[in-house]
Structures are given as C-alpha cells and as structure tokens.
Amino acid sequence: MPPPVVELEQVSKTYGDVAALAGAGLVVRRGEMLAIVGPSGSGKSTMLNIMGTLDRPSAGTVRVDGHAIDALSDRQLAALRARTIGFVFQAFHLAAGVPALDAVADGLLYSGLPRGERRRLAERALRRVGLGARLHNEPHQLSGGEKQRVAIARAVLGAPSPGSASRGDGGPLLLLADEPTGALDSRSGEVVMDLLHELHRAGTTVVVITHDRDIAASLPREVRIKDGRIEHDSGTAEPFTGRAAPHTFATEHEHEHDAAVVERVSR
Ligand SMILES: Nc1ncnc2c1ncn2[C@@H]1O[C@H](COP(=O)(O)OP(=O)(O)O)[C@@H](O)[C@H]1O
Ligand SMILES: [Mg+2]
C-alpha cells in the first residue's frame, strides 16, 4: 500500500506572534479529492503551502509521499516538489507577455527534455484543457477562465506522475489549488472544476481551497479549518481501495526509484 500523499501531525506555523496554524493534523490518501474551507485568515493557504513543501512548519511533522520533509534539504525538497506536486492559484501566476505555449513549456525547463519536445508536450497539454486555439495568446489576450486553464496545463505537465510512461501523461501525484475559481465567473469556474475532477478521475490526488459552498459540498470530503486547527473533517466516504491510474499502482521498485532521485539530487 503506498504511503499517504500528505500527513500533517500537530503542525504549527507562527509568523511573529500570529499563529497561522496551531496544531493541525490531516492525512490525505492517494486518490482523494477534498475541499478545505474556513473563514478568511483561518490558515488555509498556510496549510496548503506547507502541504506543498513551499514552506516549512514551525513545529510538527509533515510527510509528503512518505518523505518526512524535515529530513530533507531545501534542494531535496525542491526535487520532491517538482516530481510530485502541481499548484494552481487564484491569481493564475502567469508572467505578463509570455504566450500560453511558452508558459506551459517552461514548466519543463528542468526536465532535461529538448526544447522541441517540451513544446510538443505543452501543446498537447493545452489542447487537453481546450486551449488548442489559444497557444500563442499572452495572458492579457486570455479570459480569466482561460488563464486558469493555462495554469492547470502547466501544473499537470510540470509534475508528471511517477508511474507514467512519459511526461504529460496522467497528472501529478498531488494537485494543490488555492481558490482556483475565486477570480472567475461561475461558468468559467465550472470548467475549471470539471478539469480538476477529470484529473482526479485519472488518479491525481486533488486538494482545493474554496469559499464556494456548492463546490465544497460537491467534493467527496470536506475539511473545515478555524483558527489554525481542523474544526471538522467529513472524512472519506469509504476506505481507499485503489484506483486504475498508473501511479496508484506504483510498485516498491518505483518508490525505490523515487528515493534514488531524491538521493541523487542531494549530492
Ligand atoms: N507570510 C506571512 N507573514 C505574516 N503573517 C502571515 C503570513 N502568511 C499568513 N499570515 C497570517 O496567518 C494567518 C493565516 O493566513 P492564511 O493562511 O493566508 O489564511 P487563509 O488562507 O485561511 O485566509 C492570517 O492571520 C495571516 O495574516
Ligand atoms: Mg488564503
């Protein structure tokens, strides 16, 4: 059985005298899709950033795909993150003046793939999110919903699932989305959520912070956070039994391979 994608134990994060997280515990298993909800300032983004290894906790234990992150150097952490996690943010985080194709292809800059191959995979990822006719548009030539679809294509391509035959097939092990529909009209928001559901069906574990009650209620699990603590967790509907996606059948061998990659990067 593969390790949980994310395990938080008694995780705290303080900024000066502000306790953004105060002893939060959460286990996210492979193949889950869950909503994180809670009032503004309750610690949702802090928790997502810690789950995504963008930030380290002040106290407590964080494991990502079985790796205890306090045992990893910043470089090892960056390697783990690049290999397993995709991010989507409310404000898209697309650089001005960069066409969609380049924005997505640049997600593969450190993959070692030649430029032509990076662009071919980027084009395929953009076609998959329905943007085949917008490959050369810059952010200011895209609607909010289209920008978010570019961001999703980039997140999916940048962190391919470990078991997939090639980059761009399947999604990342974990996709973290911080209010991905927060800046969108409801129709564009639905398209973005449909894409996240599609990724989930393909085996990616998806965590979505949302203010939208309908979205939260439509996901299999809802976690409510308040004052830096988990206030309520609807839990998973049923014990996880496996899913027909390549990375959920990751073998022991593949885990050894992953560990070897982390090892190598650390030298
Ligand atoms: N980098 C930071 N520096 C100082 N305070 C921060 C920082 N990030 C978050 N906080 C504070 O931590 C608390 C939780 O923030 P956040 O996780 O962004 O909440 P949410 O995403 O639920 O709105 C807030 O009080 C916020 O002001
Ligand atoms: Mg936030």
TrEMBL record:
Domain spans labelled ABC transporter: 6-253
Gene3D superfamilies to which the protein is assigned, alphabetical: P-loop containing nucleotide triphosphate hydrolases (3.40.50.300)
PROSITE patterns reported in the protein's UniProt record: ABC_TRANSPORTER_1, ABC_TRANSPORTER_2
Keyword Nucleotide-binding in annotation: yes
Keywords: ATP-binding, Nucleotide-binding, Transport
Family annotation (SUPFAM superfamilies): P-loop containing nucleoside triphosphate hydrolases
GO cellular component terms, A-Z: plasma membrane
Domain of life the protein comes from: Bacteria
GO molecular function: ATP binding; ATP hydrolysis activity; transmembrane transporter activity
Pfam family, one: ABC_tran
Name of protein: Putative Macrolide export ATP-binding/permease protein MacB
Origin species: Streptomyces aurantiacus JA 4570
